[in-house]
């Protein structure tokens, strides 16, 4: 049997083609076809370099580049038939190129392997996804900054252990979410820097005997540098794991936002209302308005976290260099990129239209003796040791619970019965407004500080 009758581009070594089940089991074009534009871009850069170093003539390069661009047009138009028998995106494009321009198409693969080709494609694709995701994260951050400025004076309870702890403002709370996303932005930028290194030129694992110019290819494709070691270049998937890890943190932050929005939208809290277009109803209970976007983001976080574990497990036992196991990296990466992108985008669209019920938030902050710590601080400023002040305030709270009122509602004589250090000015610190205004330092809850922090955050967008 001649090589022309054997399977694919590697069949010369084999006396028979693969079992049909093996062919179906090993194909990847059903999911890696989304890399086509990046595969074509990388192939044109590779061919241009081969012409520069004399492996191809200029005329050969022109024909190859024109053929690849024509294939790209057909793919974009949806007029390209993907053949699973050709295994992957690379072989489908190369086979069509050879069909279109003849035997010259077979020269394209000179000096490279599918090993370094796929490593290049996925980095090009992921770089684009990182740029798009970073832009969406910035858009969500801007929405949170806007909301923080809008609600800088809106008092709400701050919680620890889901118990009312101290009063804060809604704007301050939004800036806490923004701070999480700011760190996410930093992480995505760091991941992008490590993604943006060129593996092409490593060939299968040991480089190539052809006089290639890797720096030229890196410059044309916009890579910052080339990967120095050929073994590492084809087998490294750290960059993919880092991306999924960073994405998992983005989703974890969104999941925490979601948990709070689900609680706050409940009539038991009533702090916010979400736009109808981001909610759904019940098939049986006509009064229901369910925060489905928030709940689904919370649920999809579990899937993204699972992909992170999957990729870590995929790589943990692989010897150098490339192994076919790595075909299993793409579906998790693709799914993570799709999931985190739509989740962030929906939040960026939704948050500007959240309605905040300021009166309900303020009333909730009156519950649970949220200004108790302010009373303790007041006593310390008047010379009482903090532990003693803590005891005095605890007794005051116990009394307020018995009589069914807030600390600010206790009369001065009653308060002075717990400590003669308490004077008439104590009510300035027992009010919610006084409590938040007193924290007038960087990172504090004072409305002026919230606005200043929002302005600082806006400068980083």
UniProtKB/TrEMBL annotation:
A family per Pfam: ASL_C2
EC assignment: 4.3.2.1
A GO biological-process term: L-arginine biosynthetic process via ornithine
Coiled coil spans: none
Claim: Amino-acid biosynthesis is one of the keywords in the record: yes
Keywords: Amino-acid biosynthesis, Arginine biosynthesis, Cytoplasm, Lyase
Pathway: Amino-acid biosynthesis; L-arginine biosynthesis; L-arginine from L-ornithine and carbamoyl phosphate: step 3/3
Group of enzyme by EC: lyase
CC terms in the record's Gene Ontology section: cytosol
Residue ranges of every copy of the Fumarate lyase N-terminal domain listed in the record: 12-306
Keyword Transmembrane recorded: no
Reactions performed catalytically: 2-(N(omega)-L-arginino)succinate = fumarate + L-arginine
Compartment list: Cytoplasm
GO molecular-function terms, A-Z: argininosuccinate lyase activity
Domain Argininosuccinate lyase C-terminal intervals: 369-437
Secretion signal span: none
NCBIfam families according to UniProt: argH
Family classification: Belongs to the lyase 1 family. Argininosuccinate lyase subfamily.
Protein name (record): Argininosuccinate lyase
């Amino acid at each position: 049997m001649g090589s022309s009758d054997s399977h694919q581009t590697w069949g010369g070594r084999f006396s028979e083609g693969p079992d049909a089940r093996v062919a179906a089991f090993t194909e990847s074009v059903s999911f890696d076809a989304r890399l086509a534009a990046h595969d074509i871009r990388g192939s044109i850069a590779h061919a241009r370099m081969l012409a520069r170093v004399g492996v191809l003539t200029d005329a050969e390069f022109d024909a190859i580049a024109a053929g690849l661009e024509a294939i790209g047009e057909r793919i974009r138009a949806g007029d390209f038939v993907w053949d699973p028998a050709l295994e992957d995106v690379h072989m489908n494009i190369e086979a069509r190129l050879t069909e279109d321009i003849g035997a010259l198409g077979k020269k394209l693969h000179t000096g490279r392997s599918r090993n370094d080709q796929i490593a290049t494609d996925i980095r090009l694709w992921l770089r684009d996804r990182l740029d798009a995701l970073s832009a969406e994260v910035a858009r969500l951050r801007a929405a949170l900054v806007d909301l923080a400025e809008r609600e800088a004076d809106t008092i709400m309870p701050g919680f620890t252990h889901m118990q009312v702890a101290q009063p804060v403002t809604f704007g301050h709370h939004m800036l806490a979410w923004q701070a999480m996303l700011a760190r996410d932005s930093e992480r995505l930028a760091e991941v992008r820097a490590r993604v943006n290194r060129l593996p092409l030129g490593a060939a299968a694992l040991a480089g190539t005997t052809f006089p290639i110019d890797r720096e030229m290819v890196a410059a044309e494709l916009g890579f910052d540098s080339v990967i120095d070691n050929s073994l590492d270049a084809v087998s490294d998937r750290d960059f993919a794991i880092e991306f999924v890890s960073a994405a998992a943190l983005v989703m974890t932050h969104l999941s925490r936002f979601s948990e709070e929005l689900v609680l706050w939208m409940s009539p038991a809290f009533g702090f916010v209302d979400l736009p109808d277009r981001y909610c759904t109803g019940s098939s049986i209970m006509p009064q229901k308005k369910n925060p489905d976007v928030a709940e689904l983001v919370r649920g999809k976080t579990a899937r993204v976290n699972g992909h992170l574990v999957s990729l870590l497990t995929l790589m943990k036992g692989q010897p150098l260099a490339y192994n076919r196991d790595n075909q299993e990296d793409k579906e998790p990466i693709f799914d993570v990129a799709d999931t985190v992108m739509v989740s962030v985008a929906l939040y960026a669209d939704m948050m500007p239209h959240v309605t905040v019920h300021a009166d309900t938030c303020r009333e909730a902050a009156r519950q649970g003796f949220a200004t108790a710590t302010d009373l303790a601080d007041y006593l310390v400023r008047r010379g009482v040791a903090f532990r003693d002040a803590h005891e005095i305030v605890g007794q005051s709270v116990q009394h307020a619970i018995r009589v069914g009122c807030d600390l600010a509602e206790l009369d001065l004589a009653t308060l002075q019965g717990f400590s003669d250090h308490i004077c008439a000015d104590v009510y300035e610190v027992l009010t919610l407004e006084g409590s938040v205004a007193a924290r007038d330092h960087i990172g504090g809850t004072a409305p002026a500080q919230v606005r200043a922090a929002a302005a600082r955050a806006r400068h980083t967008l």
